[in-house]
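In response to reviewer comment 3 from the previous cycle, which asked for concrete evidence that the modeling workflow produces usable outputs, we include below a single protein chain processed end to end. The sequence was submitted unchanged, and the resulting structure tokens are shown without manual editing.
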Amino acid sequence: MQDHTQEDRLSKFAQQALAYIDAGDLKSARNVTNAGLNKDPDDMPTLMVLAAIEARESGWGASYNILKRVADKSPAFPEIFNNLGMAAASLASSTGKDKFLDDAESYLRKAAKKDRKSEILANLSLVMIHKGDFLQAEKIAREAVEIDPGNASARESLGYACLHQAKWVEGFGNYEFNLGNKYRKIKALPAPRYWERGDKGLNLYVCEEQGIGDAITYSSVLPQASLDNRITYECDKRLEGLFKRSFPNIEVRGTRFDPDKAWLDGRNFDAHTLVGSLCMQYRRQDSDFPRTAFLTADPERRLMWRALLDSLPGKKVGIAWTGGLDNTFKNRRSFTLEGMLPILKTPGITWVSLQYKEPRDEIAEFTQKHGIEIKHWERAVGKGVDYDETAALVSELDAVVSVTTATIHLCGALGKKCYVLVPKRCRWFYSSDSERHRWYDSLELFRQQDKWPVERLADKLKADLCG
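The workflow returned the following structure tokens.
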């Protein structure tokens, strides 16, 4: 009787913590789980909840290890292998170690064998996307959608699997199911309804979404969309000047992250949308991608950068060597300057840093060791700078070498020649067998195979610029 009473009380710890999680109060949820585990460290339900809290706070390593203990003690526990698989997938992103992707696939296949839930299959599909097996990902996602057609995660996974294969209609159509998640939230609701594919003749509010690179790429749909609707576009302040000049027929407001939205009062928009949603209408086949420059840098700023660059010897080539965050496979997408040495040794080039993260100590150490100087102008590329300055500098360079980061989207939008180092497992923007980017003609892709093609890129750079 005593054990039964304690078991009931311990299950209440887990239930109470889950209630706090649902309310968004992670601090109280953690306090409750700590209280429960202080009484019984082997309370598996409460350990599961603690793992969920760690995952919510990006503590994927802690979550993974907690869940492994639960799996060892209670392998039949509901959802354990699903949660463990997703923790492993997050660790693959943050560590850059593909062994965690293998773990994630293994755990999720165990979960799917126990229970063919749509949510579990959607997670497995996403892991297969991360592993680069898009056909398998699509097959699994379709099964998930068949089980539950309204499951947003299943639809999103199907969308990504299709986008990787240039199946644009299904890709962007299913991608829409992630509206409202943490990456595609609408900050303001200035109109009574959301834009739908085929809408025309509207007074349409369009809001930028996601990071700077995505914002630049998706903005390529605005000229086409503005032929069908009167558009007001809200963007990051850093892009306001560049977009105003480039899209003169569109009202541009650089207030995306401003708390004061007073300018929206009384505007009477017919509909609102995130800019990526417009791809459902304006990116339905390969020929819908213009592949040409659509942004215009400030001519006066270009003149200033031209004068400075002309004072330096040789060809002037920009370089960006790190990209991504812990949750977007930063390690997979980034280099050290030492790793770039075969490229940086190319004769006849003055290198110009396009790093937005502070690189000066790394540059100084590299220069001291190898005698190769890299110019870095904070006012053009530092965190939070006006992208009008960045665009002007990039426009005056002879070329750019970059990993998969926002720099390449800017180069493509400006029509600037850019040599891109693409990881073996990449985002759908870069996914094809071609050496050309699907969105931009000015980008040449150098894909990682068993090793990075830095020597081949160095040879190509030398032939193109120094021959």
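Strands lie at 203-207, 230-234, 251-253, 271-274, 315-320, 349-353, 374-375, 399-403, 418-422, 443-447. We consider this sufficient to address the reviewer's concern, and the full set will be provided in the supplementary archive.
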